Protein: Catalase
Amino acid sequence: MFYHDGKLQYKVKVDKPNPQFAKMLQQAIGGIEGEIRVCLQYLFQAWGARGPVKYRDMLLETGTEEMAHIEMLATAVALNLETAPNETKDKMASDSPILEAIMGGANPRHILSSGLAAMAVDSNGVPFNGSWVVGTGNLATDMYANVMAESSGRVLATRLWEATDDKGMKDMLAFLIARDTMHQNQWLAVLEELGGLEGMHPIPNSFPQAEENQHFNYNFLSTHIDPKKMAEGRWSEGKSMDGKSTFTIEKAKPEGQEPELGPPHPKGYAQKEQMTGGGSITEKVKDWLE
Amino acid sequence: MFYHDGKLQYKVKVDKPNPQFAKMLQQAIGGIEGEIRVCLQYLFQAWGARGPVKYRDMLLETGTEEMAHIEMLATAVALNLETAPNETKDKMASDSPILEAIMGGANPRHILSSGLAAMAVDSNGVPFNGSWVVGTGNLATDMYANVMAESSGRVLATRLWEATDDKGMKDMLAFLIARDTMHQNQWLAVLEELGGLEGMHPIPNSFPQAEENQHFNYNFLSTHIDPKKMAEGRWSEGKSMDGKSTFTIEKAKPEGQEPELGPPHPKGYAQKEQMTGGGSITEKVKDWLE
Amino acid sequence: MFYHDGKLQYKVKVDKPNPQFAKMLQQAIGGIEGEIRVCLQYLFQAWGARGPVKYRDMLLETGTEEMAHIEMLATAVALNLETAPNETKDKMASDSPILEAIMGGANPRHILSSGLAAMAVDSNGVPFNGSWVVGTGNLATDMYANVMAESSGRVLATRLWEATDDKGMKDMLAFLIARDTMHQNQWLAVLEELGGLEGMHPIPNSFPQAEENQHFNYNFLSTHIDPKKMAEGRWSEGKSMDGKSTFTIEKAKPEGQEPELGPPHPKGYAQKEQMTGGGSITEKVKDWLE
Amino acid sequence: MFYHDGKLQYKVKVDKPNPQFAKMLQQAIGGIEGEIRVCLQYLFQAWGARGPVKYRDMLLETGTEEMAHIEMLATAVALNLETAPNETKDKMASDSPILEAIMGGANPRHILSSGLAAMAVDSNGVPFNGSWVVGTGNLATDMYANVMAESSGRVLATRLWEATDDKGMKDMLAFLIARDTMHQNQWLAVLEELGGLEGMHPIPNSFPQAEENQHFNYNFLSTHIDPKKMAEGRWSEGKSMDGKSTFTIEKAKPEGQEPELGPPHPKGYAQKEQMTGGGSITEKVKDWLE
Amino acid sequence: MFYHDGKLQYKVKVDKPNPQFAKMLQQAIGGIEGEIRVCLQYLFQAWGARGPVKYRDMLLETGTEEMAHIEMLATAVALNLETAPNETKDKMASDSPILEAIMGGANPRHILSSGLAAMAVDSNGVPFNGSWVVGTGNLATDMYANVMAESSGRVLATRLWEATDDKGMKDMLAFLIARDTMHQNQWLAVLEELGGLEGMHPIPNSFPQAEENQHFNYNFLSTHIDPKKMAEGRWSEGKSMDGKSTFTIEKAKPEGQEPELGPPHPKGYAQKEQMTGGGSITEKVKDWLE
Amino acid sequence: MFYHDGKLQYKVKVDKPNPQFAKMLQQAIGGIEGEIRVCLQYLFQAWGARGPVKYRDMLLETGTEEMAHIEMLATAVALNLETAPNETKDKMASDSPILEAIMGGANPRHILSSGLAAMAVDSNGVPFNGSWVVGTGNLATDMYANVMAESSGRVLATRLWEATDDKGMKDMLAFLIARDTMHQNQWLAVLEELGGLEGMHPIPNSFPQAEENQHFNYNFLSTHIDPKKMAEGRWSEGKSMDGKSTFTIEKAKPEGQEPELGPPHPKGYAQKEQMTGGGSITEKVKDWLE
Structure:
């Protein structure tokens, strides 16, 4: 169950409102790298957690924190969409329609749809999509999903930090960047507890590895058409990262057949020509049609 | 530029066609854990690769391989949707409509829309979505995205392997599971080359870390309402995973203000009551309206 | 800022796990009538609230409560996907693949993607969509959006209640149905405070009503082709609901012209025939092309 | 069945074409507050109407009218994308590529994809989404959905009216604003016929209210962490809006348990550590694994 | 402007309600091959039509007809979701929850969300998507889009016809199949008027063909890796279909360079290793960093 | 199976980087007219091809070529997002934030999300959608889908060609335009092989045409409300395009009934008023409720 106190986790101050920056901040709210995604991702992972409860507990802690980050960013968007009263009054007096001033690069829905407030969309106005909320039930996979989310989130936050010279915004982003640092480390700590590379991989480590194809599991396949070019590197020689085998490298080549599908089902209403064909009609089809 | 040879990378054989399993296999084609996603993800990462070209080269190799995996799975779906000719003929002779037999748990669009072939959708018929193709331009983030994709992909493949007892399908999946093992290792190899945990984190490592908030960057924040309950673990004490600091833990508490937005813009057409309010109207609004 | 305590707002007990019902419950989580939507809707409305702060405060209270409802339902889904250990062990021993038993009408991604846990999707597996989070900045509109969300939510919950005979599930739903009753009343209370029908409508009430077309604003237009048939009712006579005029009724007829667009732009690469036309080429085009 | 006459319901004239305004108008066509949504919503409600046929008849009348509104707006978009022939000719003669002039804030697909015509998308180019078409089969819910649609639609139209000083566009919008006034009143008239607040609520009124939890149905729950702060108002005391009870207020507190899920299914391929765990492994899991 | 008469264009009768078939019929309503798509497609093409008005007029005629087809199908869905009263009463008396009987292969939202009525979704419950409404402003392209829509629509309708043995449904589908026949012919008639293959192609025929690359415009490129295998056919020899050249065939080979992107922008926060690289760092990057 | 060589199919050179043009080029990558769509469309058609294998072979050839087109365009986007090093260095020295310079009309995610690289989205940032990948299993339908895709693709490419005066970009586009010319011709060649208009239509030609309604299959229906206005043309008289009948024309009129649905299901929780109604309650409902 959840509670709130109505204050922000960290101060949000906008010195010079900027609707273009409001549009950009939306990426950190409703984008795939954004806070709605990590908030729901950690909470759904917690709610579906099976196994040691300590991870469920931690996921709840941080999922709840992320809710406060959405709140901070939503406030920042709203403040960036405000214009100082005086300035606005002056504009009212002028001939030019109010929206013109902020339309270059701004999100029109910030005016038309939300009344100068944040929305559950990304920086192009594309709505948040629930498919981004990853929880597989495999803890190691989920932790990688979380490291990745916090990495792309921190990359995004540093780019936003770079994109503004508003002191208040830079301060807020410096806080969020710091939290991403912690969260990256936090999920990595779980990965260590889960056994590190050798203990965890290949993920899932509960599948009997003897069942996988033993020729292709540590074998870099080059698809380069030139027989002499193969992208070699750490991944093509030496001990595999999971310590379970040795990397090899070879040219990819087809082990499989040319696929042959049966004729179309007569009641599926393909074209007649697909059944009686031209020169290339297969014997199989002929037999069947008689 | 790309080439093909019309053969499958690995043999695809279906002993007993099963439309329900065809529906499930779609998750591995058009789902977020599926092959269209990794194929496009590796290729887009390659096409946008900046920095050492060896990673671009490797991404191209494996992105091209994934295209062959889509092909294998699409073939597997088509074969699972086929019924042996004789059996079908018998059905034709019976009164019952042809579709009835396969509707329990099958994807209706496999009959209605695709003519018994694979589609670019997941196991619920939800279309593939380009937002899943992650490439951030930050190599370490992208490698984590790739490890995560191959981890959720291998989890999916093992679950599909479990869901069938068709010998041909199990063999094909054992091949794909093996490739996921290799690909997990492969992206981990790049992460090692990029400096391992200490060298890479916090991602991005090119952002001047002094700019981030120094109180909150290695500090686990507990949002549990009970002052005595905090989810402790490896993440709350000891050296941080990136080796740059020491974990601490404390109770989250608001550092920020109660947010205060200005009144609605007069030309944004909120309700009048939002401007003149009830008892709680702020001084700020009063001043402005006069 | 937000806090949690790790307990459920109301008890969630499943007597007889049922994966089909798990699929149905997803509608109440990630569907348009579901709890993710109302949770984010109330919170985004709070975060963007301009005007009397009492409404912002109330929205925060209830938005936070809805988070606990998602948690309850996510737990209910996970419990409905569990099978008693013994039963499972027996199944393992049998020949039949584990998934077969639950595929009739179940969501395949509950097995393939989430590891028997809830997801941010609806009962057909369609992901939650951020466009459903409505907040217009006009308080009366938003309250109607909320009444409507709680009405469709309560309708959904009663249908789910009807669809199960699991005692635990019925009890949980009876709690959620009660909360929907309260929340409907709660938003209606705000609508009353905002002036009731006469005070609020037409929404937005801050737009100068003299600017709207004065012939068509209280005039029911019948588009029935039969001159004698018009759908009469309370809406076609008597005082208008907002008390500002009297309802009238008349046949709709075109007040506007037949639309005439200019010729295609020569560099927009329409077909040549669209510029030089057949018999019906307009003079306007001819002139322009010379 | 439907008919047309090729004329516009109301005149559409654009004095000064403006591609930015064309982009904005798209919100009123393909946005969630737009005319495609209300058109399909009223028609689908009509086509699925069960109960007194008078409502079905009225929904058909107005659904058909909305089709004419899409037509008006689509025409307005096309006209806003036109440039006077002479002006265009001059541009052709200049060096600058034709598109440059209109790219600031315009929708690139108006040039690239539609050939200077309207599309079924919103003001950010996000496609219309069928999930917005609400029809629950519960008439009162549907009427609230309609009041809400017309309220957000009128808010949008007044903001568009504010965003232009084109006389023709303002006149067209003044017509549409008037229709929204009527339609708000019209759906409210049905709500009155359905019994008003006391008769209708809680929606659905056909569910036996005794079955809902009797403690929580008229009880405002405060989730504020501070025991002394509760968002009081009309919703926390006095007769409930539906006249069926009296509002109370109390602090939310967990009535439910800490959720406990079973261990991961052994064939679902979670990580091994989720089954054998660390210090916190539950007895339940231990027993089961033996 | 549009009108209606409340009757169906053709009779819709369901002899034996079948919720699975209701689910399938949704493909013809809200699927990509469905009637909402063609209705909006023809109308949007009409509303944006530039050039000879006769095509605009015809598009309006048929777009309006398609609205009646949605109506027919929506009615058919609603009727397929009805159960004869007696049968229902009996079910009420039994222990089994009402929904169980119809859940195998049915759309749960037909019960949970719409109250036994049609929705704007496809046969998997995926919402209609406005991106499917194609109108390019190039009349020949649009006519091909229309032929294609009516072809996939007729294929769908014949498969639905095959999937039912309900006499009423077969009769309704025989009507819709006939209309698809007409509509295919109708759009083909426009293509003939636009000049047939030689007159129309390559589309757009208004682009100065001399500007396109003259080596590759009638040249089949084989990407088969085997130098001796090329997919020959009518497309590789003889006069081109547009009569403007002669088909040739050759092996595809790269005419372009190996792509070389600049180093990452220093403020875009890639990893440091992407700038200073390993062994493969380019001279370009080195120079730039100094 | 697939191979690559790391070179581009045709040279891609950008003389003057232009982020606005990069945004526009995205339409040709991830838009509905773009290359991801045709690539996957041809490949999925190949992978599901039933009937003469020559078409499967050809589809594979061209699907593979399209992959190279995505690569070219992705490279073009990345190059358009680059600024010459010197120019960038100067900008660094200035006060203005780096992003400001390119925000007018650019895609913010090119900076925030992808690090100056192409993404799987269209020119508005809307993600690629798998529903656009059309393959019906009916070869003629699929060929029309392909002609249409190449027609809208060529229209798009000519508009992009028009929108730039960068010599390198114009050259690349002139190549792509040429390939679209060939591909249009190529699919038309298959249509000829499939029998041309008379042989192919109505599609599917395998459905027994006697089963379709014989009154309405070659009959243009006018829905114009004016009895004297009917959109006549080639489609209303003369031999039908498929040579199987003669076109006629008549006024559309309802052949069907006024639809009558049963009352709402008592356990579906509509409003009570929908069951007991007002004046218009049907006898059917009354009987049933007793």
About this structure: Chain F has two domains: 19-198, 209-255. Chain F has a mean pLDDT of 89. Chain F is about 45% helix and 5% strand. The first strand of chain F starts at residue 2 and ends at 4.
